[in-house]
Design a protein that fits this description.
10 helices; binds copper (II) ion; binds CU-O-CU linkage; about 725 residues; 37 strands; about 30% helix
Length: about 725
């Protein structure tokens, strides 16, 4: 419903612009009528144009009002306070000024006279109060289209003041121009000659002049947006959010004193106690419980269909090797880069590791260039399904294969307890890592054909679904067994219920763990409803893919499972509150203009840097005003979903690290700031992230010795 209103509003404004341009042109040409008969006919038609324009404006204004009645203010403040008044002003001028004059004109002219226009008719046909409203409508509609493409978000009348003033000045000029024409029409003795070429030349001249004037701020903005060769992420646009005062009133939070000044260089000595992120590492000492070596290199990888792809790999495999560790173990991973010229890292997506182990170039480490290596050491503190990927030129790196599954199995004690219950039954634990390979399409790992698996009836099966792709929300359907979603984003759910005929839609970067008991007939997991690319499980691994019906319902965690005590909840006292508005706007990013996806109206590096202090409980409201999904991924923390679109989350506590925020959605989430550092927070549609849809969370008293930009080799996205 919400997106319907938004679309109707935008369509109304675009159509209003298109048709008002035509109508304005027609009104301006009334004077060129050869005879009274023609003038009469044209005037009559113009009245229909007024009715038509009113319909488009009404669609836009009506939708704005409907949104105001139904949605969060972020969705309608600009629509109701800018778009609607501009549209209403122009439409009223048409009805109050132009319409009565058109009526007069019709009364005073005859539809049957072939006589040339006399002075009175010529004056009437150029009357500014008749013609200018049409032009004004076109002008204000153009203004509205500008505000649609470049919305003042978060809403701020000040940002809109400049363009509105420009519109007012232009409107006055239009009126003056039309008065001039009116005077000329009265003074001249004969009918005004229609000289199309003169008119066209004049129009082109005006357009060229307008372009020349506009190009100055545009070129300046373009130049301004060029990313500097070196940029410290610790020096972002600090934002402190809101807090409550003693009386519980929402007030602006005071700046945290121990952070750096925006724009300053990493001030050596500015905060002598500031901790560099490189010191926020995992245990440096001690023997690792588990060691891995991953070598990044280019390789040709053969998929199950026989197709060969040019991949970027870890250890020659794409996806990279599946890493399995146990909760509580000290993990050591040595990364070597053989020949990936762009550089590589390892980011443990979803695992809340110490900051220095997070693997983000320019934020927590330098890119590992060919011939170099880097060692990560951390304790795997959460059991669950995660994945790892390079966080240097992430979009390209992930697309080409620099990723793999990371499974943290529960600590021995828990394992022993569960084993006692399911002792007799075998159990299967299968990672389903889906990916689109360039030239080969969707695959499960390296399988772009059907996977067959023999599983004993009665066995407990756990499927760990991981979506590694950009853009798409992947749909997984399990046919042949009822199942439970036992974990989301690496966090177990509390008493999840039995599901059947429900599609599992997983956002990019997200994970679902699915569990079921193997029946004595085949069970099929389809990926996007495909009968050839999926996982067929049966007693002997043989048999046909069961007929699958795409379920109409899709899994929704908001009320799934049973409530359980969580350390925080909707009525906790939050130390700090932030708002993140996801939208798009016509902007420049690194010198290139496009309709960019924005956070609070900005693209990186203008996006806010949310400042927190260790120990604070933080609440964030994430609002998607745009027309596409944005899976928001916060590093180093898990967010507890409190509510969606005003509806409280009532099921099992739903902790997420990659939250799919669909168009029109308003999520309230909370997280505990208990992992000091500099943490990326970005859209995991890596195409968006690479175009600036990224920001970061910064702890007070933390600094980063690293920089991003061309001169540093570091390009986290
Ligand atoms: Cu999976 Cu910042 O990334
Ligand atoms: Cu996005």
């Amino acid at each position: 419903m919400l997106s319907l209103f938004i679309h109707v509003e935008q369509a109304g404004l675009f159509l209003l612009l298109l048709f008002s341009l035509i109508a304005a042109n027609k009104a301006a040409k009334l004077i060129y009528s050869h005879a009274e008969r023609e003038l009469h006919r044209k005037a009559r038609k113009l009245r229909f144009w007024i009715v038509g324009l009113t319909i488009w404006a009404a669609a836009a204004v009506g939708s704005a009002i409907a949104l105001a009645a139904a949605a969060h203010p972020v969705f309608w403040l600009d629509r109701l306070l800018i778009h609607a008044p501009l549209a209403l002003i122009s439409i009223s001028s048409l009805w109050l000024l132009a319409w009565p004059r058109l009526r007069m004109l019709l009364l005073r002219t005859s539809a049957a006279t072939e006589q040339k226009l006399d002075t009175a008719r010529r004056r009437h046909a150029t009357d500014p109060a008749l013609v200018a409203p049409f032009k004004l409508t076109a002008l204000l509609a153009a203004g509205n289209v500008y505000f649609v493409l470049s919305p003042p978000v978060p809403f701020n009348l000040f940002e809109a003041a400049m363009p509105i003033t420009t519109l007012l000045v232009l409107g006055t000029l239009l009126w003056m121009h039309q008065s001039g024409r009116n005077g000329a029409a009265a003074a001249s003795e004969s009918a005004t000659e229609y000289r199309p070429w003169t008119r066209r030349v004049r129009m082109t001249g005006i357009a060229a002049a307008a372009c020349a004037v506009l190009s100055v701020p545009i070129l300046l903005a373009m130049d301004n947006s060029k990313l500097p060769g070196r940029l410290s992420m610790a020096e972002g646009a600090a934002e402190y959010g809101m807090t409550r005062d003693e009386n519980g009133k929402r007030v602006k939070a005071a700046p945290l004193l121990r952070n750096h000044v925006h724009g300053a260089l990493p001030a050596a000595g500015a905060d002598k106690d500031a901790v560099p992120v490189s010191e926020l590492s995992g245990p440096k000492e001690g023997t690792a419980d588990r060691r891995f070596e991953l070598t990044a290199k280019k390789a040709q990888v053969q998929l199950s269909s026989g197709k060969v792809i040019d991949a970027w790999t870890y250890n020659g495999k794409a996806p990279g090797p599946e890493l399995r560790v146990r909760e509580g173990e000290l993990i050591e991973v040595k990364l070597r880069n053989e020949d990936i010229e762009d550089g590589v890292t390892l980011h443990w997506h979803g695992l809340d590791v110490p900051n220095a182990e997070d693997g983000v170039t320019g934020a927590t480490q330098e890119a590992v260039m060919p011939g170099e290596s880097y060692t990560y050491r951390f304790i795997a503190e959460q059991a669950g399904t995660f994945w790892y990927h390079s966080h240097q030129h992430s979009k390209e790196a992930v697309e080409k294969g620099l990723f793999g599954a990371l499974v943290v199995e529960p600590a021995e004690t828990e394992k022993a307890a569960t084993a006692a219950i399911t002792e007799s039954a075998a159990s299967e634990d299968i990672v389903v890592l889906t990916h689109i390979w360039d030239g080969a399409g969707t695959a499960v790992g390296g399988h772009d054909t059907l996977i067959r698996k023999a599983i004993q009836p009665g066995a407990t099966v756990k499927l760990r679904l991981v979506n590694t792709d950009n853009w798409v929300r992947r749909a997984y359907t399990l046919t042949g067994a009822s199942f439970k979603v036992t974990a989301i984003d690496g966090t177990d759910l509390h008493n999840p219920g039995e599901l059947k005929n429900v599609r599992l839609e997983l956002t990019t970067g997200g994970r679902y763990d699915v569990a079921f008991t193997m029946p004595d007939h085949p069970v099929y997991l389809s990926v996007d409803g495909d009968r050839e690319r999926g996982l067929l499980m049966s007693a002997d691994g043989e048999g046909d893919v069961p007929i699958t019906m795409e379920p109409s319902q899709s899994f929704d965690p908001l009320h799934y499972g049973e409530a359980a005590p969580a350390p925080v909840g909707a009525d906790s006292r939050f130390d700090r509150e932030f708002t993140m508005i996801l939208d798009n706007r016509l902007a420049f990013y690194n010198g290139t203009p496009a309709l960019y996806d924005t956070i609070n109206g900005k693209v990186f590096p203008e996006t806010p840097m949310f400042m927190v202090k260790e120990g604070e409980l933080v609440k964030a409201t994430i609002i998607n005003r745009s027309a596409v999904d944005h899976p928001m991924h916060l590093h180093g923390h898990h967010m507890l979903v409190l509510s969606r679109n005003g509806e409280q989350a009532t099921g099992s506590p739903w902790w997420s690290d990659t939250l799919d925020v669909a168009p029109g959605d308003v999520y309230e989430v909370t997280f505990l700031a208990n992992n000091p550092g500099l943490w990326m927070d970005h859209c995991h549609n890596l195409v968006h992230a690479a175009a600036g849809m990224t920001m970061h969370l910064m702890y007070e008293g933390v600094t980063s010795p690293f920089q991003i930009g061309d001169e540093s080799h570091n390009h986290p996205e």
